[in-house]
Design brief:
Number of strands: 0
Distance between the termini: 40 Å
Oligomer: single chain
Order of helices and strands: HHHHHHHHHHHHHHH
Helix content: over 70%
Largest sheet: none
Strand content: under 5%
Structural class: mainly alpha
Shape: globular
Length: 368
């Protein structure tokens, strides 16, 4: 841990994951098997890239959330930690629900015409609050959209209240746990059980990773295991992930209680666990430092996460509707333009905040 309290490899891996969302959501526009906010032509390559990323990136974020919960409670205290969760998670979710999400809904409804939508921004805003379907947000009805992560994290933080509250009493036991490959195997079985249904965004899977992050946050044998085994885990996870990319459509379309579905899902479970731990181990070994650029993205990654979909959705809508070029060129345009717009806006917000802080500092009266 650095002198400023930051754990650099966690910051850097979180930054890479947040930035990968531009690629992930761009690929989802061209996904073969399900609808998205904006639907373009269906192609296998973006479908496989999307599948490759979704198997592990969110699990890593929830594991880190569990780890940093321990450090945050230690620094802030139990009561202030939960007040901070309300401020940092619940408040942005509620504000986005009445601002960003209804406005980006305009382009979603333009791409997915719906009865009752009059084709205006105001109409899209009203449609958002007057229709309820599956809460995915791809049809213009009310949903947390991309902010499902914030909603899940807030709910999981509440559900893990007993574990967080008793952590100090259990600290010694957790620190003495001996992490080994047996843990990895046990986690594979557990993930297979709680996430047996098709999909990579099931609540129980992320609850497991969050709780595990708390338990292993100060466990030295876990750190030693990752330092020794991360290359093996990452290699195995990557190889299996490529296999899963070819199996993913059969997994999602297969019948649950068949042997064919079971073995494919078992391969997925091994892959997602080994890839998650291998990725974390790689970060600890190779990305445990900071420079000015990584510091900027570490500080602004949460804002980038919140603000990137409106740009991506709008650019994707105009691209797939009006630019009749090769889909790879469309993807490149959506990816680069949405990233540039989002980072530019976040930078401007940061400059304004610094300017405002400077003005307030100069205007503050000098105490006599």
């Amino acid at each position: 841990m650095a002198n400023d309290g930051r754990i650099y490899y966690i910051d850097n891996l979180k930054t890479l994951i947040i930035l990968s969302l531009f690629l992930l959501h761009t690929c989802e526009v061209y996904h073969i098997d399900h609808t998205f906010w904006i639907d373009g032509e269906e192609h296998m390559l973006p479908t496989m890239i999307f599948s490759f990323l979704t198997t592990f990136v969110m699990g890593v974020l929830f594991f880190f959330a569990g780890m940093t919960t321990v450090y945050s409670v230690k620094r802030r205290g139990f009561k202030r930690f939960y007040l901070n969760r309300c401020k940092k998670l619940l408040l942005p979710l509620l504000l986005s629900l009445v601002t960003i999400l209804p406005l980006q809904n305009y382009f979603i409804l333009k791409n997915h015409p719906a009865e009752g939508f009059d084709g205006t921004f105001l109409g899209a805003y009203c449609y958002f609050f007057t229709h309820i379907t599956d809460m995915r947000g791809v049809d213009g009805a009310i949903s947390p959209a991309h902010l499902w992560f914030i909603l899940y994290l807030f709910l999981i933080t509440l559900l893990c209240f007993p574990l967080i509250a008793r952590y100090e009493k259990l600290r010694e036991r957790f620190q003495k746990l001996s992490f080994s490959t047996l843990w990895v195997c046990a986690l594979v079985v557990l993930i297979l059980i709680v996430n047996y249904e098709p999909g990579d965004e099931l609540f129980m899977r992320f609850l497991v990773y969050y709780a595990l992050g708390i338990v292993l946050s100060e466990n030295q044998s876990f750190n030693a295991y990752l330092e020794k085994r991360w290359k093996i885990l990452l290699t195995l996870g990557t190889a299996l992930n490529i296999v899963v990319c070819f199996l993913i459509l059969k997994i999602q379309q297969g019948e649950l209680f068949t042997f064919a579905y079971f073995w494919r899902r078992a391969v997925w479970a091994v892959e997602t666990v080994t890839m998650t731990f291998g990725y974390i181990g790689m970060g600890k070994a190779l990305l445990n430092s900071q420079n000015r650029l990584s510091k900027f993205f570490a500080e602004e990654s949460f804002m980038i996460y919140i603000l990137h979909p409106p740009f991506l959705i709008a650019i994707a809508y105009f691209t797939v509707t009006y630019l009749h070029i090769h889909y790879l060129l469309q993807m490149l345009l959506i990816l680069t333009a949405s990233a540039a717009c989002t980072v530019t806006l976040v930078t401007l917000i940061k400059i304004c905040q610094k300017a405002q802080a400077g003005v307030c500092g100069r205007e503050r009266p000098i105490a006599k």
